[in-house]
Amino acid sequence: MKNEYAANGYFVVKGLFKADELQKVREVLLEFHASWQQKNAAFYAEKAINSAYLTGTEHLGEAGRNVLFRLIGSSRLMDIAATVLKRQPTFMNTQLFFDPVNKSQMNYWHRDPQYHLSVEEQQAALAGPDVVHFRLPLVDEPGIELVPGTHQRWDSDEELEIRLEQNGRKNHEPLSGGVTVELAAGDLLVFSANMIHRGLYGNGRLSLDILLCEPEPDLAKFVRDDCLPDREVMASLENAGAFESTIAIKKNIGGY
């Protein structure tokens, strides 16, 4: 896994979670999604393809949050995270990916940092620190399309023009280097947030993304306090290291 991630920026662990293990997680995600849709009805109807902060207190009660905390703090997930991240895995966020309501809405190539960094800063971000998605699909889905190796290299002319819609190009156009990775319920897709990628819509996708990063204040400072477990919950987890790392950083910078 480590070598595959280093070379390509992603890998898949097939069938990591069984159907009976996913059922409770699925129930919690649907509970969150129903509440989130109600409170974000216009955005959901217009263009939404994901939501975030699933472990927060706005849409889930204690029981539902604890299901997600146990999943994130499982040895199974944390052992994989430790092989990918060069330093202590640190909790950042959670996201839920779903199909857009507008069936004509096109998917789009992007690097995650492009929404808050300049082009020059995006290029510099390739040197780290790393942010990694751990994606768990709850239903069989078309998956995701990735450009292998772009977690460590800058865009080609074609990639940059399409991703940033330059010179009349559109970000939904195909890329010659794109590779499709289909996913089944229970698989785990691990991929770098820095790499060029796009989600593939269809089949009522419902995918939970757990975002982990290296222990950097500039990354951890934006984690919402209400998205973190309390000490009692952390003591019950198989591996609370990712949460402990985030809390330690936030306390050190006076943000917790």
UniProtKB/TrEMBL annotation:
Keyword annotations: Dioxygenase, Oxidoreductase
GO MF, one annotated term: 2-oxoglutarate-dependent dioxygenase activity
Lineage: superkingdom: Bacteria
Protein name: Phytanoyl-CoA dioxygenase family protein
